[in-house]
Amino acid sequence: MSALRLINETEVASGVTTVNITDLFSADFDIYQIEFSGIYQSTNVSNGIEGLRLINASGSVITASEYSYANLNMPSGSAFAENRFTTRDFIFFNLYADQLGEGNANASMYIFNPNNSSSYTFLISQANGQTSTDMYAGKTIGVHLVATQIKGIQLYESTALNTFGGGFIRTYGLRVDNG
């Protein structure tokens, strides 16, 4: 029996700047795996950068400066860069994507303790993508610095002039067997 249970599959619509996925997290799991596949933008940009925000138990997207994260950005054509940020209103997780045909992005993310209202919500991710000018890989760690119950995620385009073109987001619950 698989340790992963598919909870949700969401297709990213074309022409939108945000994708909200609610009712993802429950008391059934403490760890979730989220797969972002084939994400791309509908506009032509040199390096599209998407961000992630969490959705609380009342269904509100958390846009306050309550996130901290660090990442390693590894472009193929230039020097690697380490970034560390505190009190941000999103988590950037190295999801670079261009128009379809020029490149799209994929990421694997783990989210820990989102349903636990007494704990911070943590995440780790690794991503790869391609734009018309470069290939990218990246690793990110992040935390929501308020102990609250989290029920979903928002993927959003951090550059307001750009919109998503498509892709899929699949969320799995990770079962941990006590042996």
How would you portray this structure in words?
By secondary structure, the protein is mostly beta strands. The protein has one domain. The strands form two sheets. An eight-stranded antiparallel beta sheet has the order 1-12-3-8-9-10-5-6, with no helix packed on it. Strands 2-11-4-7 form a four-stranded antiparallel beta sheet, with no helix packed on it. The radius of gyration is 16 Å and the shape is globular. 35% of the residues are buried.
Write the layout of secondary structure elements.
Layout: E1 4-11, E2 18-21, E3 31-41, E4 48-56, E5 67-75, E6 81-88, E7 91-97, E8 105-112, E9 121-130, E10 135-144, E11 150-157, E12 164-174
Antiparallel strand pairs: 1-12, 2-11, 3-8, 3-12, 4-7, 4-11, 5-6, 5-10, 8-9, 9-10
Spatially, the strands of the biggest sheet line up as 1-12-3-8-9-10-5-6
Number of domains: 1
Report the span from N to C terminus: 15 Å
What's the mean pLDDT score? 88
Please provide the count of β strands.
12
* Biggest sheet layout: 8 strands, antiparallel
Cα gyration radius (Å): 16 Å
Report low-confidence residues grouped into runs of 5 or more.
Answer: none
| Helical segment count | 0
**Element order: H for helix, E for strand:** EEEEEEEEEEEE
Key words describing this protein structure:
179 residues; four-stranded antiparallel β-sheet; 12 strands
How would you concisely characterize the structure shown here?
This protein has one domain (4-109, 133-174). It is 0% helix and 58% strand. It has no helices and twelve strands.
